[in-house]
Amino acid sequence: MCRAHQDSLAQAAQTCLQECLANVEKLNARLAAIRLDPNSSLKLYDKLFLTFRPADWRGWVLHLLAYVSIVGCGWYLFHLGVAQDTGEFSRQIFLSALQRSFTFLVLAFFLAVVLLFRAWALEERRRCLGYRKVAGALERALLMRFPESWRMLLGQIMFFLSGMVLLTILHSTLTGVFGTRSNGLFALAFFGIPTLIAVLVFRTWAVAELAYQEHGPQLVPWRKTLFVGFFKKIRQYGPRRLMFFLTLFWCCLFGLPTSIYSVAMVTESWSIALLIFAINLPNLVGLYAVLRSLRIKCSLATQCQAEKSVAASAAPA
Question: What is the mean pLDDT of residues 276-285?
Fold first, then answer.
């Protein structure tokens, strides 16, 4: 073998050896990070079925909610086969109910709730034992992260509820519940688009609350959030500011009259007044969500600029 081939083979072997060593170092780092996680000592069935002892009262509550969700799922499955006239379980009725697509949609909802409470119970145990896991991409995308504050919890609840409503609208459109194709498309545009906007707004709010708890910026005033650099920073803050003013216009157009009407209906019927207020409540929460997420984004940008200026001034000339 000539000298040039020997040198090329030696260089290739050295490159492969360096890559192997780098992969081993990455694997050792990941194993060390896994060993720091207190849940790594739990057995597989403990993680799957939450058979470990909770560390505090919040862990007990999350365990209870997970078990209640499982019982609710089992009750729903059993109730599918119960005849309406006799009240007895029938195998044929159960199998016919499983042929409806809406049944699987409800089961998916129960499964998502169970997995959510399971993930929160595991995360709560980590925090009680002094370990905080970095939020992954999937946790941020689906908001499976344990809530850092009551605002983030509210954003997650509104995100999950609006997401379930959106899936129901899509399912009703595809299965022809709204009638003809034109009626289905009209219902999808009239109900689906506002619901999709609500899903995006509440998810953005929950993610913003997570970023606020991680970085802890000082919140800027709401006037600066809405009006400072209105045209100069239109690419950075323009869509969210536009969403805020559109939501504010909708609340003034629809929410204010309905709120006044609900107050007037208190003397006649408490139930109707509460129903009208409940219908108007998501609009008010959405308005607060848009303003809060925009304010956190502006605060994080201001903090980043301040840190860059401090680093630039501290750098040697």
Answer: 79
